[in-house]
Amino acid sequence: MTSMRAEILESAARLFAAHGFRGTSLQDIASDVGCSKASLLYHFTSKDAILSELFAPVGRDLEAIQGKLAPLDGEQAAREAVAGLVELALRFRRQVKILLVDVDDLLCHPELPDVDSATESLVDALVGRAPEQECRVAGWMALVGIFLTCARGVDVSDEVLRVELTRGALRTLGRPTD
Amino acid sequence: MTSMRAEILESAARLFAAHGFRGTSLQDIASDVGCSKASLLYHFTSKDAILSELFAPVGRDLEAIQGKLAPLDGEQAAREAVAGLVELALRFRRQVKILLVDVDDLLCHPELPDVDSATESLVDALVGRAPEQECRVAGWMALVGIFLTCARGVDVSDEVLRVELTRGALRTLGRPTD
DNA sequence: ACAGACTCTGTCCGATCGGTCAGTTACGTT
DNA sequence: AACGTAACTGACCGATCGGACAGAGTCTGT
Prior knowledge:
Chains A, B: Pfam families: TetR_N (PF00440). Helices cover 78% and strands 0% of the residues of chain A. Chain A is mostly helical.
């Protein structure tokens, strides 16, 4: 018998990925787990806390990747970042899927600064601190190019994951600025 | 003085793009327009109807693009689709931004079959009716490759749009299948 | 047997959601 | 001035949301 917390996280992960954070209610999770809604709030202080916990390992790894990029130049940093992100993605398949699937929710959800700021810092580390959005987009486009190149010849499930990952990167910067 | 319907659509478009469909309440739109919430529902039968109307022209164009692809082979169809999608994107910047920003909402929102089915058909036309998700992903990956190639040498704002568009394509297929 | 901690739930709460409706205002026509 | 219609609104509705809380059930050490 697995622990209750783990079951909740597993159900929440699946439901968040399928319907988004906003589109998943506590009752949905409770029904999926097979317990009461109140039980969720016994194990986790809030709905946000469930999401936070799902993202925690991803956030830590993003920070670790970012740390490695500091001394590198642009192109090299991009390649290193791709390698790191792919490794991260393969290690935390489900969490990363949520991370990317749920970017819309996250962006409307500033209460999760750990992952958000980590991603932000990663972008800065990759393309520099140039304030212009254009520069950052160009940097990400280059990254995505490398990313797509690396993706060839990989088994399909990994490729799907890479698509998701690429999408997340694009998503972060494609967002309208107004 | 512009018409009330146009003002509502404009506000809704901006807010949907910024916060998503789910993240935007009727009261939010009403406040932005400067009228009452009830007034929105006088001009539109429902919140969904506002979204539907925003998507209507995009849906029609997607169908038109799809129609052109039928007699073409894979590679040629992909190039044609990219051209069509870019043209579409540039013509309906705002609507397309919403389309792409809001894909998460749409996928949890089967009440908008016109756009959804049009996109679906477009995918089928591009990569064939192969039932395997892998095949479709591979097709889209190829499309994205062409897409990124085409995107070089374009002014930045257009490029941002292309990033958004690419993201939407990736998004559609990257979605987990469970 | 008892106490205390842990786990879980039924029930309630205030807030907010999309949507309805009766009624008021504004305005062109006669 | 009187009327009809379109535009608009305040008040309200049922449903659902995240969350609070007291209490019941279960387990373990003494």
